[in-house]
Each structure stands twice: as structure tokens, then as C-alpha cells.
Amino acid sequence: MNEPIISTNDLSVHFPLTGRLFGEKPVVRAVEGVSVDIGKGSFYGLVGESGSGKTTFGRALLRAAPITRGSAIYNDGEVKYDLSTIKKHELTDYRKRAQLIFQDPYAALSPRMTVRDIIAEPLEVMGLTNSREETDERVREIAAKCRINLEHLRRFPHAFSGGQRQRISIARALVSKPNFIVADESVAALDVSIQADVLNLLKSIQQDMGLTFLFISHDLSVVAHTCDHVAVMYLGRLVETAPTRELFANPRHPYTKALLSAIPSLDPDDQGNPLKLEGEIPSPTNPPPGCKFQTRCRHSIDLCRKEEPKLDKLGDEHDVACHRWKELID
Amino acid sequence: MSLPLISVKDLTLSFRTDEGLVKAVDQVSFDIAPGEVMGLVGESGSGKSVTAKSLMLLNPDNAVYDPKSSITLNVDDKSIDVFSLKKPSDQMIIRGGAISMIFQEPMASFAPAISIGEQMVEQLMIHSTMNYARAKEISIEMLTRVGIPDPAQRFGQYAFEFSGGMRQRAMVAMALSTKPKLLIADEPTTALDVTIQAQVIDLMKDLVKEFHMAILFITHDLGVIAQTADQVAVMYLGKLIEKGSVRQVLRNPQHPYTRGLLDALPRLDDLDRPLKAVEGDIPSPLDRPSGCVFNTRCPVSLGSECETIIPEFTTNKDGQQVACLLTQKEEAEA
Amino acid sequence: MTVTTNSTTANVDVKVNQKLKEAYFTASQGQLIWTRFKKQTAAMVGAGVLIALILAGIFAPFLTPYDPTIDGRNKDYVYGAPNVPSFCDSNGCSLRPFIYSYNRTRSIKTNFRWVTEVDTDARRYLTFLPEGDKYELLGMTFTTHLFGVDTGKIHLFGTDSTGKDIFSRTFHAINTSLAVGTIGVFIAFVLALIIGGISGYYGGWIDSALQMMTDTVRTIPAIPLFMALAAFMPDTWSSETRFLFISMILGFVGWPTLARRVRTHLLTERNQEYVLAAQLCGASAGHVIRRHLLPSFTSYIIVDLIISFPYMVLSETALSFIGLGLKDPVNSLGVMLQNVTDPDVLLNYQWHFIPVLFFITLVLAFVFVGDGLRDAADPYADTKK
Questions:
Q1: Predicted model pTM
Q2: Which CATH number fits domain A4-320: 3.40.50.300, 3.40.50.1100, 3.30.420.10, 2.40.30.20?
Q3: Cα separation of B330 and B311, whole Å?
């Protein structure tokens, strides 16, 4: 694997809940003890359902959410920062190198700015250009890469459809020529026919600009097609991570298996694996003891209720956090 | 041959807006047999929700129906012309009586300040002559049937006390308590996690078998359709462009749009295939293309023919219906 | 097969359509709001009336024939009925409009009350752009008025108890009320921006503290407060000082409502994703406020300001009416309404109510414009899926 551009170690993000004045203050453990290595140039998928903490994790990597514990090292060969202890002037530089693409194309663009201004904003805020001409040049360059019609630069966001807005959002994230992009559910709000278009665009830009993507999604099929490595999260914890083909061919964690079997197949005669999960995701403010998945796992034993499993290395970059994965191999 | 449960013919509907008369649905026709699950597939702007709401006359006041549209409900040996129901007391049969509906956002569908149980009882008492006690009994039965634990206790709880999946189940329970013949499900699983989605889909399949109920399942997710529907109809920009059994349409799509949708879908059984997008963007409903609605994005468009002629529905030898000039030409030559 | 007609007119339509569409796509928010505003008849009518009244107020000294103070009164025509100009009467028609002369007699027959008789034979013709009382406008002194009459005085709305022309007073009063309202709204707005702005932008405990203060000010009952302040105002103050003081009080009492609105707007806007996007580039608070937050609520704040105006005018009128605000000889609608509490006036001299009609029209115009703007500005978050 390539040298990791992001390497987290026991990363945790806790949000305090207001309420009690005395005693232990309750916290929401949105992300708990996640250790991953994201290789440079990879298209790294992060999947999970609601409450999994994947969005919070992505935002923590951009310092849009506080890091309570653990470390996250950014190393692109030029600079090396520990995001958990980053200083202000380092953070200013880091922002040029790491950016975020939002989920909702309708909320992510200021309705009062022209497309040109929206895309130019990062350049202006970060002082990356010296003149208006230079800014315009950079904006046109990235707009062309994102297949945005140059005539549309003078229009306002209300003139565009969801897919087009998402392309504007992408252009804004890329204009500062970053190395690392967090794409937070960037295609979830798009129609299927547009989704494929945006995904293809992201992949072509990755090749072209040599970027690393952290692709956060709840849609496993999309992740399967675009990512080279996948990590699965459940209730703030990392449960399994492996290269894409390996994960889909040989899932080891019961949750991953259930997730895969829950995806409705496009073949009407394929009724799927009867591995449907019962019950609901526990509340993040009141997680069950031991393994977080044990309340819904049909294979849970006493050990699962007492002790939280550590991440076991299976080799070939395949890690699993389950006490019984060896026994459960089909 | 028995009468279809509901028969929609030439449904055409426009909305009066600031920008003028905007056509939302254009000459849509389909039949749903009793106990059949019909999937209505389309993307944004396809008009699928508007079509469904027309069956219950739930569209807002600025909706203008073309006089040639007709919707006929055949239930209890009666043929009811839905558009002739003017008084609210007559409309009850299509609203919660023979036809029930569940929506995408269960949080928005339940009144926040009234307990779930009260809402279910209210629904039952409007549509039947039973008293409160009997209605409560039936409601708790339905809650059990949809798999909600502790139904007697849950009966008195409010919508915010339920999780997303449970709320959706409660909505199914409420919709089914009047034993409707047709359930309209408008994107019921889109807002749910995929594991919860699987549970709700299973539930609906069981209920269809038990109640012999027909479902009009509206969604953009072809995978869900593959697993639940018998028949599928594909809509694009207000027009129905392909209709057939689910196996036919998914394995042998006749319309270029359906083919495009299937090509753009990431499939777990074929990870090496690149995703092929459909060219262009969905046109705004204010800007409907002339001729075939799909011609602006069609990879096999016949040029000016497709720009001027509106294709009609033709049926092939397998019973599959499609509205496409090219396919019809190929059929004729075959 | 159905064939759609295809002709050259369709092509022309397409071209025109393209231009319109391009205009729509490149329209800024302000332009879109203006387009939507124009479509509302009530709002446009209200705007027209409002502009007319404001201009009438500003140019009141020119439009009205006489000085509205004691200096311009007509001693011979006290409690006089309105002189309605006409073009024709039993003696024939004339191109120039005219009014009649009056004879005032007092005798034992009438219990020594002044009785006015109209003399239909003695005509007085209206003159246009005559010279008259001096007045100051825009820093310069003029003496030309819009119209007058060849002999004596003309009172289109009649006169009051001392002979002052109600027509002149009405328009000057509009000006005064608008001026008081403007100063009051301005002060309230500045305070609201600062306090509401800090509250909404920073949130947290600053917000809580400021909100408690805002609520405290809001709960102070207005009438006792004004009574106290009015008692505090010494009689030795000139009318201008009183005027300024009243305006300032209105502003200081009126800011909580506006501040609350500003705070709400900021709280909503601050959580928008595009603000987060700017912050992720390292944008400073100043940049975020300037480029995202301020433009976003400008349209809402303008609506709020316009809606506050009638409340200020109403407050001033109410205060002056009960004697706690401006007093004679300063003209305001409230002062003029003070005169109508006399039952004698109510029964016999109903023309004193004409200013009320102007007042109602002014407030309604503000309300229609404000409502129209609010409707035009609101549906901007459309085109969601």
C-alpha cells in the first residue's frame, strides 16, 4: 500500500450532552477508537448506517469536529501535521490541502453568489491568487475540469439542477488544488442517472489531479464500484476494513454480512440471503456494553456482552473487530 | 377475465404556477389487478408522486386535470369513477377506505402532539361504525402484526418516541387497519437505513399475501422493485414510457431510458462494469422537449423524427409495452 | 402517430424564451424579489400611494398654501367648513376653479355666535404658483406655493379652532410623523443590529445574557414609561428638542422586536452548509458576516423595517394624542387628533377627521408594501426536490 496520507490512531470524537449538573456528564461517543490508514491516491470508502459516526469521522479529519482523543496524522510528503494538536498557522496551511464536498447540493451553495464567486471564494479567502485575472483563470480551469459550461459562471445557483450544483460544489472543493478530499454522501441526494455521471467525474478527477478521496456513503453498491478500499463503521466503532473485492467476497464481521445481504438484488429471482437483521440501532447516548453489535447479532455469546473486541489483522489489509470471526467463516 | 382493481386511463394533469401551466403528468394509463404489486419507477420530475396522489384526489388546488382523464375503482362489485366524487363524504372511500397511502417521511406523516394510538383509532372510527374500544383493540392487533414490540404500551406513545423504522411500521399498521384493497406506498423506504429497509420490505410482502392487497409501490430504487413488484411501469418527465412484468423490464428493457437507468446502477454482482451515465440532465418541467420527452438525452435518438413525433404505446409479443419509435421500428422489422 | 406542429413561429418563440430564461438565470436575489413584487397588485398600489404620501410630506411647504402654525391662521374663518372649488354654478362656468366668499355675522338672533353665510355671487378665483408665506426647503428659502386664491384664503379641508388651515397642517403633519418614525426606526435598527447581531453570531452564553436583557426591555409597559419620560421633559425645551427626544425614546423602546428578528435570521444562516464551506477554507468571522450572513438577511430586514414603520408612527400618534408626545404648535397627526376629542367638534365640525383618513391610508400603504415584500422575498428557497 502507498504511504498513508491520513493515519489515525484510536481517534475518538465525543460530544458532551448538557443536562446534569452533578455526577458524570453524559457524552455521545460519536466516534470511538478508530484506527485507519488511508493510502495516498486511494479512493477510500467509509460505510455505515445512521448513527455510525462516519460523517463525524470525516469532519474530524478536516477539523470541523473536535478530536477528543487519539491522533490523526496527515502526511502528503511535503508537510506532516498531527490534526489532534495542530496549531493555528498549520491549520491555515492544512485547509489548502484538505477539503470537503457536501451532501446536499441545495444547501451547500450560497444562493446569493454567482457560480464564479462561489468557486472563487476559497482562492480569495486563502489568498492563493494575486489578481482578479488569476482568480478568473483558475476558476475557469477547474470549471472546465468539472464539465461546467463556462457560460454558466455568471448564473446563480437557482438556475441549476441537483447534479449541476453538485459539480459546482466539487469545483469549489478542488479549486485550491488540495491533496485530500472528504466526499460526504456526495451522491446520495442525486438521481441514479446523474449519480453515475458525478461518480465518473470524481474518478476522472482523481486520476487527473492525483487526489486521495475519503468517500463516505451508506450505499454499499456505489462504494463497491468506486472505491479500492472499504471501512465499515457501526455506532462509532470500526468493525471491518479491507480492500473492496476482498470485503465483498469474504466479509467476516456479522454486521458486514448482514449489510451485504440486506441490499435488494436487481434479479427478481434472487431472494437474497435470509440474514436480515432484527431490531434497531442502539442510541449513541446509551450504547450496550461490550461489543456494540451484540444486541442484534445472532452469534453473540457472553464474551461479546462483556468485552469489546479489538481489531484483528487477517492479513492483506483485512481487519475485523469480532470475537468469533474465525468460527463464523461460512 | 376479472376487472382490474383500479384502472387509470389517459391521466393528464397540469399545475397552475407563477410561471404558467406546468404539465406534470401526460396521458398515463395503467391497470392494477387485485393483489398485484405494481412498481412505479422514475426519477425527480417524473410525476410518479403526482400520479399516485391523483388516485386519492390529494393533489393541491392548483392542479388542473384534463377532462379526458379517468380513474376507475372496481371494488365490492361497484365501479366508481374517482373524478365524480365531489363531496368529502363520498371521497372517503378513496381516502383511507379502499385505498390507503404511506409516505416517505414518517415523521412528517404523524401529528406530533397526538399519540400514535389515537391517530389510528381516529382513522378506524371515521371509516367504520365501530366504537372506541373495538378500534383500540384492532389498532393494537395491527401494531403487533407489523412487529412493534410492546404494542399496548406503544399505543399511547408519540411519534418522536419511535425510531425511523418503527415509525414506518406504525404507518403501515395505520394504513392497513381499514383493510384497504390498494395500498399506495410513496417512497416508503428511501429515508431508512438499508437494514431497516429490508425489514420493512419483508413486512410488506407478508402483508400482501395475508390481506390479498394490491400495492402501488413508488420508488426510484430498482433493487427494491425487483424484490417486491410483479409489474413495473417506468415514468420520465410525466410520461409512461415502459410497462411490463418485472422480469421482462429488468432483464430485457425495451426503452433507451430504462436501459440507461439499469446501466447507471451500480450492481454488486458485476463490480468490474463501469458505471454508464445517462447523458445530459433531466429537463425542467417548464421546458418539456417536443416529440418524445426523452429525445434530448437519448443515445439512439432518430433525430428529427424523435423530436417531432410523440411515440404511442405498443405491445410486443411478450406483453411488454413501450413507447419508443426505434423499438417499434425494430419490432416491425423483426 | 401524433404529430406536433412545427413552424417558424416556434423558432422565434424559442429565441425569446431563451433570453427570458437567461435573464432568470442571471438574476440576483434582489432582481428576483422585485419581479415577484411587481406581480402583486395590492403591493404595487400601496407602494405608489406610499411614495406619493412621502413626497407630499417632503414638499408639504410648497404644496400647501399657508403656514401651518399660528402665524398662518385665518382669524376671520375659525372653525370654518372646507372650501370646495368648483368650475360651474348657477352664474355660469369658468375655466378657472373658484370658491365662494363668506360673510360672518353675529347678532342677537344667533345668540351671539358667529354664523357664516356663503355668498354665491362673490367668487374668488384660484391662483397657481402665487407668492405666499415664507418657508424653508432643502436649506433654501422660498415663497412660492402650488396654489392659492386671489383674495382672502382658501381652506380645502376647513380650519380648526384658531383658524389654522387643516389642509396645510395635514401635509406638514405627515412629514413630521414620517420624520419621527424614520429616526425611531433608525435608532431601533442600529441597536437591533448590534445586539441581535452579537447574540445571533456568537450564540452560547452571550446569546442567553443578551436575550435576558432584551426580554427585560420588552416587558417594560410602554404607557407608564412614556408618562414618566414625558413628565421628565421640561416645558422649556423647544419643540424641536421635544421632537428629537420623542423619536429617540421610540427607538430605544422599539429595538427588542427587531433585535429578536435579527438574531433569529443569524442563527439560521450561521448553520447553513455554505457558511461551513467558507469556514473550512479558513474564512474569518468578518468575511462570513460580510459575504454570507449580511446579504442573506438584507431582504428580510428591509421587510422588518418597513413593517416597523407603521408601529412607530402609531406609537407617536398615540402618545401625542394623549398629550405625552408632541404638543401644539408642532404638527403631527397625533396632535391634530387631539383636537377631535371635543364633542362640539365631533358633532359640528366633522372635517377635523380628514387627517384621520390620510393617517389610515399611510399605515395601510406601509402594511401592503411590507406584506408584498415579505411574500416576494420568502419563496426564494424554492426549486428543492
A1: 0.79
A2: 3.40.50.300
A3: 14
